Amino acid sequence: MPASFHPPVRTLMGPGPSDVNPRILEALSRPTIGHLDPVFVGLMDEIKSLLQFAFQTKNALTLPVSAPGSAGMETCFVNLVSPGDTVVIAQNGVFGGRMQENVERCGGTAVMVKDEWGTAVDPQKVEDALKANPAAKVLAFVHAETSTGARSDAASLCELASSHDCLTIVDTVTSLGGIEVDIDGWGADAVYSGTQKCLSCVPGLSPVTFSERAAEVIKARDHRAQSWFLDLELVMSYWGEGAQRAYHHTAPINALYGLHEALLILHEEGLPEAWARHRRNHTALAAGLQTLGIEFVVDADHRLPQLNCVRFPDGIDDAAVRKALLGQYQLEIGAGLGPLAGKVWRIGLMGFASNQKNVLLCLGALESVLLQQGEKLEAGAAVAAAQASFAS
Amino acid sequence: MPASFHPPVRTLMGPGPSDVNPRILEALSRPTIGHLDPVFVGLMDEIKSLLQFAFQTKNALTLPVSAPGSAGMETCFVNLVSPGDTVVIAQNGVFGGRMQENVERCGGTAVMVKDEWGTAVDPQKVEDALKANPAAKVLAFVHAETSTGARSDAASLCELASSHDCLTIVDTVTSLGGIEVDIDGWGADAVYSGTQKCLSCVPGLSPVTFSERAAEVIKARDHRAQSWFLDLELVMSYWGEGAQRAYHHTAPINALYGLHEALLILHEEGLPEAWARHRRNHTALAAGLQTLGIEFVVDADHRLPQLNCVRFPDGIDDAAVRKALLGQYQLEIGAGLGPLAGKVWRIGLMGFASNQKNVLLCLGALESVLLQQGEKLEAGAAVAAAQASFAS
Hints:
Two copies of one chain form a homodimer. The first copy, chain A, is built from 14 helices and 14 strands.
């Protein structure tokens, strides 16, 4: 006979989901109301405004897709890419590959511009590809690669696209709330994110925003989007302006309570303050990791403070260390993906989880487990280095 | 400055979301763990088993899609319908029309077999269509039409499809947990449901199940599904057998806690007991409505006990009544859709909300509001009729 599920209380310092603020967990459990209730329509309007704040945009077409980040990605592609279109994709990790899958499933041609995993997207290569493909309709890239911890220069890439008359599709899943995301400043056209990274909310929703220019392209389509569920022309009849909202699908009411609370927390802290906190905790973690002989995959200029992708020392049993961290300390850190599998750990310091307590816990726990594994380390040195960083 | 959102405490007796059991709301707020955590993988296995129980199936390919019911519908179509395929769709309400949208967006041809809204699907018309379209690959229909409250004969329709070598796609969004759903008994091939109806869970997930035969068709495809997010070949790498689960997308962890608890509650009660409870409360509601001069749209043999679609008396101000119920009694009932808009109410008695208390509340509140609107009624008669029904 199955019984109620009571999860262990973990500390989530992987690539996401990250630790959820208890205020958000509590919000999820508030009483459900109807998806056409006038009070709920008011909440939807507030969520839109708060998303515009988080994305730094005035885009009217800003809303949370009722499904995880990969559905947000698909929303961008199925609404902007038609059969026969060419899309230039800058790939420097897992998610550029997923973009290629999306383009091809839309009947488009993907022109791949590849950079090494762990490096930023090279704007020169992108410019060469845009020149070589003058018919390209869209440039797609990942701002913050969750698989490698690398940040690319979104402003420059959007400017390049614009100068070649291309729309942009930008993945900000791991960046939103952790480092600067400036949709209007960049001039980005179609942008998706996730809730379970630096917004510290539970997974399951994908905030998206579309520029006026992208909205015009969608309205001018001569065919229906291949997805009914993700067709923005239909979704907007529910999420659009005015008090009258036409039923499209049943919104995930309680998940939206959580997202509202998460955005409110970010609004209360302020964007620059949240970004500074992520930098400060990253700096302290990096100081501690250095004493453990653990090196970053990404060079200092392009590191994401919220996702620390690090090479562990030779001879370390990757799975055994992660299992010990989980078993002894209830601490989750992430494994490597793709070519980095078995070579790196991904240590998240995202949103609510980006705090001094977690920095010390992670360093102390990792040091303990590495000592158990026979590594020669000076006990306490990692924590001391982080303490010094916080004090400086 | 926005503030935390505190919803009013409604009683949800519309077409869904229905009232959520507080056990489920509490489950949503349990601590988030990782989507690859071994403890979470164990929970996924339990959810699969409980879904098999609820659907009455042994299908291995049984899982909750990480998005609402309309994404569950789309999962069935994008995985089974290829460009050029013919699909016979029996339409007797809103959701048959949505199926047509899905087929056409998959590049298929939809052969529509239409029945009047409020009636069951006519098996004879379906048989005629299957005979006239020998190349048809799929028969799609809605078991319990949420827009009209009509139940169709799923067993007969599946048998018809089988005898014409057709797969079936069956919508059980409103039926699962409220009336008998017997996937293996029917021999249905691809079935989707929702969480916010008779499972009394929050909206946002869509349980699906696929027969061995449907799974073979999916494996034998010579092209990729047009949706990456809903491609079952990829989704199954995460939801499939064994302890090793490959990352596809980040599962909506806390929503799945809620679904697990909802299925557990159904399991504790038992399927026949849950169906009997829905019938009993429907019978009492119907007795009360009769005293108010309110008639059912659907004939007695095909009525859904969980969704009572009723014509209100001539001259009633539809919107004013629903607004008064919401304002004075915090009670939500549903409006009509499509050709039934402005003519009917849809009164849900779904899952946790299907209880004696709600029957009396709804009748008492409706009677009060109708009296306020100047209707000539005997005060208390509706409640008395329901009490008599419960006592009998």
